[in-house]
């Protein structure tokens, strides 16, 4: 297992776990994880327990580790260290285009965070060269049709970039790996491998 950290603040630990088996088999510590369903439900987590059904989590409790599992979908972790609020988001194309990331930013703001102060880490996910849709004008909501390319590929990274900017997140506070899972054999890719293995992206307040 290899840990690639994000630097989201002195009181925040976060990063991507590169694994050879499914992340849940290799994890060296307890986490809260989700049965991810490509929706927009956000759960506030007070303590770690069995898997819950949702696609995003927020917590204000130090030591609670939030883990997102992905293999092509976009894993996003966010922190406002000063407010003591962190979040982890599973943004597949359905959740992304249903605005799960701006919804999470709004929930963090309700809990005391300030959008301009957020630090954000984004792990490997499907790049535009590999994100071909069968009928994107039907599958993607009209407000994101600008991200559809002539070859039926959809630039999901551009959608996320715009959502973060419109939510007030500063570009300089976003750490984005910009690695395509499908093109990079060191990451799991459902599109490439069609299997159940997922790697992990995790965040934790440490104080
Ligand atoms: Zn690719």
Explain this structure.
With 207 residues, the chain is an alpha/beta fold. The strands form 3 sheets. The protein has a 6-stranded mixed sheet. It has a 4-stranded antiparallel sheet with strand order 1-2-12-7, with no helix packed on it. The protein has a single domain, classed as 4-Layer Sandwich (CNF1/YfiH-like putative cysteine hydrolases), CATH 3.60.140.10. Strand 8 (74-80) and strand 9 (85-91) form a beta hairpin. The protein has 6 helices and 12 strands. Zinc ion binds at residues 127, 129-130, 180, 182-183.
SSE diagram, text form:
Layout: E1 2-6, E2 12-18, H1 23-26, E3 34-35, E4 42-44, E5 52-53, E6 56-59, E7 66-70, E8 74-80, E9 85-91, H2 93-97, H3 100-110, E10 119-122, H4 136-139, H5 156-166, E11 174-176, H6 190-193, E12 199-205
Parallel strand pairs: 3-5, 4-6, 10-11
Antiparallel strand pairs: 1-2, 2-12, 6-9, 7-12, 8-9, 8-10
This protein binds zinc ion.
The site of zinc ion (ZN) has 6 residues, from loops.
Label this structure with key terms.
207 residues; alpha/beta; CNF1/YfiH-like putative cysteine hydrolases; four-stranded antiparallel sheet; 6 helices; 27% strand; binds zinc ion
Strand order of the largest sheet: 4-6-9-8-10-11
The value of Rg in angstroms is 16 Å
Percentage of residues assigned to helices: 10-25%
Question: How many extended strands?
Answer: 12
Which structural class matches the secondary elements?
alpha/beta
Instruction: Tell me the name of the CATH class.
Output: Alpha Beta
How does CATH name the architecture? 4-Layer Sandwich
**CA-based shape:** globular
What share of the residues does DSSP label as strand, in percent? Answer: 25-35%
Mean pLDDT: 97
Bound molecules: zinc ion
* The number of domains: 1
User: First CA to last CA: what distance?
Assistant: 25 Å
User: Element order, helices and strands?
Assistant: EEHEEEEEEEHHEHHEHE
User: CATH homologous superfamily?
Assistant: CNF1/YfiH-like putative cysteine hydrolases
Instruction: Give the low-pLDDT segments.
Output: none
In CATH, the topology is named: CNF1/YfiH-like putative cysteine hydrolases
Number of helices: 6
Largest sheet: 6 strands, mixed
């Amino acid at each position: 297992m290899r840990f690639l950290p994000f630097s989201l603040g002195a009181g925040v630990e976060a990063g991507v776990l590169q694994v050879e088996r499914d992340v849940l088999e290799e994890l060296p510590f307890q986490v809260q994880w989700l049965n991810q369903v490509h929706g927009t439900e956000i759960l506030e987590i007070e303590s770690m327990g069995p898997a819950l059904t949702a696609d995003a989590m927020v917590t204000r409790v130090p030591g609670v580790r939030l883990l997102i599992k992905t293999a092509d979908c976009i894993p996003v972790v966010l922190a406002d260290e000063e407010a003591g609020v962190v979040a982890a988001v599973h943004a597949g194309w359905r959740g992304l285009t249903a605005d799960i990331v701006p919804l999470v930013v709004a929930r963090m703001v309700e809990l005391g965070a300030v959008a301009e102060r957020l630090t954000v880490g984004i792990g490997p996910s499907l790049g535009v060269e590999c994100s071909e849709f069968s009928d994107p004008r039907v599958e993607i909501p009209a407000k994101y049709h600008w991200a559809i390319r002539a070859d039926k590929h959809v630039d999901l990274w551009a959608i996320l970039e715009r959502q973060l900017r419109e939510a007030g997140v500063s570009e300089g506070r976003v750490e984005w790996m910009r690695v395509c899972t499908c093109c990079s054999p060191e990451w799991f890719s459902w599109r490439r491998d069609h299997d159940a293995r997922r790697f992990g992206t995790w965040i934790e307040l440490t104080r």
